[in-house]
Amino acid sequence: MDDATVEDYFSYTPIHGAPETAAVLFFITAIVLFVQLKGASRWLLILPFTSLSESIGYILRSICIKYASLGLFITMTLFLLLPPNALALFNYKVVGQISRSSFDPDKKFWMKPRFVTWFFLGSDIFSFLLQSTGASMMSQDNDAAKIGKWICTVGLAIQLVFLAMFSAVAFVIFRSPLYKVTKGPKDKDERMAKTRIAWTIFTTTGLLYVRSIYRLVEFIDGYGGKVYSAEWAFYVFDFVPIFVMSLIYIISFIGYNFPRYTQIASV
């Protein structure tokens, strides 16, 4: 594809202005989140680094619109496809921390902190590896590209399954009065803090589900298909959900509920 044009890579003529705007917006959210992190647990760095990765992805998209390059196009695809996996990991970590810091004498194995954190972490890493491997293979010959497409599809499908399982576990934990959270400076009490965190987790997980379904349909539809070729769908179902998630994490910043030096109860 040495003589390929921009349209050959995208299968349509991409619009100018949108990727630059998206890059700036994600960069701003990254800066805000970095500032908010002062005094919070270090694992919350997942949030600003995800926004920063999204910003880089859209910068690469802007460059790809002007200069066609297979390597650059694949790198852009990876930066826009993979970072949301980190947001799923963040939500898993939040629920795992709540389980870890609470005492439930009848805690089932699937609600134990190690299971919540490591089982879903493992699924997220597995999905990440499948998607990155598949996306890399799509830059090769036709046979490898077809295999890569289905590997990406399987990775996204696995992510959807585990997101649904995680939502069920999170529902039980947030509903039970035995699971406590640390009250933040803007919370009237622990109950309000728990409600706010639950709203954050379920809303962002729902948005991530929408984005993952879109990506799954896109890969099933195939390169050059109606879904892949609809640029408006990419911004509506990929950019908007991830950006709104970033805004939710900023507005309902739960880092205050997980201070860096909180003593964790043993389970």
Automatic annotation (TrEMBL):
**Which keywords, in A-to-Z order, does the entry hold?**
Membrane, Transmembrane, Transmembrane helix
PANTHER family reported in the protein's UniProt record:
PROTEIN RTA1-RELATED
- Name used for this protein in its record: RTA1 like protein
Q: Write out the GO cellular component annotations.
A: membrane
Protein's UniProt keywords contain Ion transport: no
Q: How is this protein positioned relative to the membrane?
A: Multi-pass membrane protein
Q: Name one Pfam family in it.
A: RTA1
The record's subcellular location field reads:
Membrane
Asked whether the keyword Membrane is assigned, the reply is yes
InterPro entries to which the protein is assigned, alphabetical: RTA1
Q: Which residues cross the membrane?
A: 15-35, 42-60, 72-94, 115-135, 147-174, 195-214, 234-256
Chief location of this protein?
membrane
